[in-house]
Design goal:
The protein contains 14 helices and no strands. It has 337 residues and is an all-alpha fold.
Length: 337
């Protein structure tokens, strides 16, 4: 008499984590930055996230239906939500709904699903959406707000965003201020010194505290083992090194290292964007090289390129180089020289 035993396909050892758990912890790591961002700049940050998540999930479901893929497992992995949140915090608070929708269209449909979905995308989807918006809608993408402590309280950024979405009016168009990177670029173009161009302690007022909050979330991810230290270290170390050299040579034209590290999206990029496991390098040595490449590219584009902040462009260029870096940084097979 034969007995039948239930068998399952390999691997037979159940993993301790999953894509959903990893993405959930990434979202937890983003909470400190979102909280500080909302506290200093109003509820426009939250409106960005709500619109981005809603449109991103809608595009994800639509593409899965078109591709005849099961919807529930791919939506439950939270990858679309992480992409939506990263894009939402990278664009100005209180951006109009149509701007966010276009960004999510390119992030989810073009950069992710058309390549085969999660695990097959060669480029960071959130950064693809960001770059498309920056190239196509430069005016809307430069409407950065001053902290609410320096802006009138008659209309918060949340009300501005939803008034644009539904055609209403709250009587105020918006309150904007230049970031330290914009101020430095303007000063250089006018032949002025960049010294004192920032209005905060290190970087632009308010945004420096948001950047430090991203760092807190990044340390949480390191502690939980969600990301490794190699890419953030390589990025920040390389940026600090080249910016220190530049500042020593031309302090009146180039920002100091502290402003380069704290200003703009450097810390958000180092911990949450450059560490994307799909589009980044996979080898240990390759991750260090990959992070350093991004740091150098950020400095070069910020200093001599056409855009004041360069994290998205640097990450996408490094995505192109990731397969080559991995190929030449593979560890040697044991027993071979």
């Amino acid at each position: 008499m034969s007995r039948r035993f239930e068998t399952a396909s390999s691997p037979h050892i159940k993993p301790k984590t999953s894509v959903t758990k990893v993405m959930a912890q990434v979202l937890l790591g983003l909470i400190p930055g979102i909280a500080v961002y909302s506290w200093l700049f109003g509820w426009g940050v939250i409106s960005n996230i709500v619109i981005a998540c809603a449109t991103g999930l809608a595009f994800e479901v639509a593409m899965l239906q078109i591709r005849r893929k099961p919807i529930q497992p791919f939506v439950k992995d939270l990858s679309a939500v992480v992409t939506a949140v990263l894009l939402a915090v990278a664009i100005p608070p209180g951006s109009p709904w149509w701007l966010i929708t276009v960004g999510m269209l390119f992030a989810i449909v073009v950069a992710k699903q058309l390549y085969g979905g999660l695990g097959y995308n060669p480029f960071n989807p959130a950064m693809i959406g960001y770059v498309v918006l920056l190239l196509c809608f430069p005016v809307e993408m430069t409407q950065w707000q001053a902290p609410l402590s320096t802006a009138p309280e008659a209309c918060t950024s949340f009300a501005q965003a939803w008034s644009q979405a539904f055609g209403a009016s709250c009587g105020v168009d918006g309150y904007t201020s230049a970031t330290i990177l914009d101020s430095a670029r303007t000063a250089v173009s006018q032949g002025l010194s960049v010294a004192g161009s920032n209005s905060g302690l290190i970087a632009a007022a308010g945004y420096e505290w948001v950047a430090l909050a991203w760092a807190v979330g990044g340390l949480f991810l390191l502690w939980r083992g969600i990301i490794s230290w190699h890419i953030p270290f390589g990025l920040l170390a390389a940026l600090a090194l080249v910016s220190s050299l530049g500042w020593v040579i031309a302090p009146e034209r180039l920002l100091d290292p502290a402003a380069q590290l704290i200003g703009g999206a450097t810390l958000l990029g180092a911990f949450f964007i450059a560490t994307d496991p799909v589009s980044a390098c996979t080898t240990t040595r390759g991750r260090l090289i990959y992070g350093a490449l991004i740091g150098v590219l950020i400095y070069v584009i910020r200093s001599w390129g056409g855009y004041p902040d360069a994290v998205a462009f640097a990450v996408l260029l490094a995505n192109l180089a990731a397969p080559t870096i991995d190929y030449y940084s593979k560890p040697k097979v044991f027993g071979y020289q």
